[in-house]
TrEMBL record, chains A, B:
Family: Belongs to the methyltransferase superfamily. Type-7 methyltransferase family.
Gene Ontology biological-process annotations: methylation
Keyword Signal: no
Gene3D superfamilies referenced in this protein's UniProt entry, alphabetically: Methyltransferase, alpha-helical capping domain, Vaccinia Virus protein VP39
Keywords carried by this UniProt record: Magnesium, Metal-binding, Methyltransferase, Transferase
Gene Ontology molecular functions: methyltransferase activity
Top-rank taxon, per record: Eukaryota
Protein name: Probable S-adenosylmethionine-dependent methyltransferase At5g38100 isoform X1
Entry annotated with the keyword Transit peptide: no
Classification of source organism: Eukaryota, Viridiplantae, Streptophyta, Embryophyta, Tracheophyta
Pfam families associated with the record: Methyltransf_7
Length: 351, 351
């Protein structure tokens, strides 16, 4: 299991200072998340043995986006609880307490996360180090799990992509975005399928009956911008500053599922029901302003670490810096090609 | 509320590399902790609504000592559970799961803690940022709380100690150790009493009926070595490198309770029963070898941060470095004055 932390700290290239994209996604999904809780969550079942909501944020990074999501989830759960209380005679009067388990890889900067926790939070906050492709919690102990831009990160890169004898060899590219070879996308999807099977199996152990998982992932729009990082690397290779085989042997471990992909992996697993699934168009301020630089800085904060890890800090940083310098070109490209940005929202319930 | 983290990271003066004293304490208390669990813990009551043990380590710092303590506690709880299972017909066959909540101030280095977690641990591990003089957990959610060298840290320094008009003014000293003025000790104890009242009140909310708190604190021996840090600061004052009023206005927020002190604060609070209380002599390898330097390095890793915080890094580091240089003098002093090192062990049960 490999880990790919966001850029640490709070410096100029840090995730905490460049997470506007993720903020848009969290804000874009807000109404859907609240609606799923109000319409679909069965409070009676999930709180049958507890007066405390146990919530986990899977892939929380360092904030601040994770805190705004947790805040509206706590508020929605409280509203739902009060609605239920009004409907039931003799129901306990105690407002439930909330525990939030902020999970990310052990390499995540939990110190920054903890020091950024809102002072006026209405929940008990904990850090959970470890991959969410493994067990993190005792059996049947979680009521609500949330992950935004989390499950896009594959547990590893499928070998075929870097095997020159394989039909899925992804020569000269660093992702399936921009690849004309369908075998490349297939290899990515196969890995996503395997990872999600593991993900659902471990979550099914941890989540109480009737408990909910909400997954939010980018679907269209800025995903296609990833290819510019690959072209910067190829520029360096063409200038002789980098051996092209290093590009051939690298692929970003990111997969962006379609609604069809998501339906397939959930049904195949069989332990969760799909309560809501929707593509949501987000009004991207970033796109309206065609602020390609902000957009690319945001992408950079997510992927620079893994690029440096493969190419070394000198080449990795130069490739990222060059990509940011292409902002004008990227801006032109966006005006012509940019799809309306949208996210995939899915709410699942433990059967 | 002020926080006083141990020296961070894993450098030459870090707590993680200089925590031999705390290791001795943890090892010294091991048999008592196990015995208290086996003899005194009422498994039936505490697990009546859960098949998961919720354990917290209060003031965990960064490891490695916290991990050895948690390991033997998990083993003892498992043994106790199996003993109980043997005695009861129709008792569930599931071995319970363990959640361990590692707590310390938000300024603690949780990144080091998480990266040092044992790979083969048999528990789910979480980090809990915050002062243990406040609420950390939902009501009635903790079964076992452990703190070694934690409650020695007062929440703050009583004002009288730094008020030159008060009879408790602690002029020229940085602790009650070495002070001839009884008002100084009284002021320290009064703060300890207030802090423990808060500590027991919040823990009483969090701990299930029959749940246990184990507290381990240094009692005699190396405590008296703290005065050498004070004398190094006074040396600097006498050399004109430091204004003496800065020494007068500083006191280490550390109190080392006697069994009588502990009995008094527990009884005054009234929410816990004393199941075991004992002074344990520890066979200090450090003392046998009269390794004053190792001992002083260990003390330094605990208190350097707070000294630097008051005196600035230049003076603070110099005072600590000078104290270490006095190892020969300290060694001589130890041979004449050193009491047999002992720790206070107390096991409490939530009524």
């Amino acid at each position: 299991m490999t880990s790919f932390p966001m850029n640490a700290g709070d410096g100029v290239y840090s995730y905490s200072k460049n997470s506007q994209l993720h903020k848009e996604m969290i804000d874009g999904a807000k109404e859907m998340v609240i609606d799923a809780i109000i319409q679909k969550l069965d409070i009676k079942t999930i709180l049958s043995s507890s007066n405390t909501f146990h919530i986990t944020e899977l892939g929380c990074s360092v904030g601040p986006n994770t805190f705004s999501a947790m805040q509206y989830i706590v508020e929605a759960l409280t509203d739902k609880y009060l609605l239920y209380q009004d409907q039931v005679i003799n129901f306990t009067n105690n407002i439930p307490e909330f525990q939030i388990f902020f999970n990310d890889h052990v390499t995540n900067d939990f110190n920054i996360l903890f020091r950024s926790l809102p002072f006026d939070r209405s929940y008990y906050a904990y850090g959970v180090p470890g991959s969410f492709y493994g067990r993190l919690f005792p059996s049947r102990s979680i009521h609500f799990a949330h992950s935004s831009s989390g499950i896009n990160w594959l547990s590893k890169i499928p070998k075929e992509l870097v095997d020159e004898k394989s039909p899925a060899w992804n020569k000269g590219l660093i992702h399936y975005v921009g690849a004309s070879n369908v075998e490349v996308v297939n290899a990515y999807f196969a890995q996503f399928e395997k990872d999600m099977e593991i993900f659902f199996n471990v979550r099914a152990e941890e989540i109480v009956q009737g408990g909910m998982i909400v997954l939010i992932t980018a679907f269209s729009g800025y995903i296609r911008l990833l290819k510019f990082f690959g072209s910067s690397l190829m520029d360096l290779a063409n200038e002789g500053k980098l051996d092209e085989s290093l590009v051939d042997s690298f692929n970003l471990p990111l997969y962006y599922p379609s609604p069809q992909d998501m339906t397939k992996v959930v049904r195949k697993n069989g332990l969760f029901s799909i309560e809501r699934m929707e593509l949501i168009n987000i009004k991207s301020n970033l796109v309206d302003e065609a602020d390609a630089k902000t957009l690319m800085m945001s992408l950079r904060s997510s992927i620079e670490g893994i690029i440096i890890n493969h190419f070394g800090s000198k080449i990795g940083e130069e490739a990222c810096a060059r990509t940011i310098l292409k902002s004008e070109e990227i801006s032109e490209w966006m005006k012509v090609n940019y799809e309306k940005p949208s996210i995939l929202f899915v709410a699942l319930k433990r059967k």
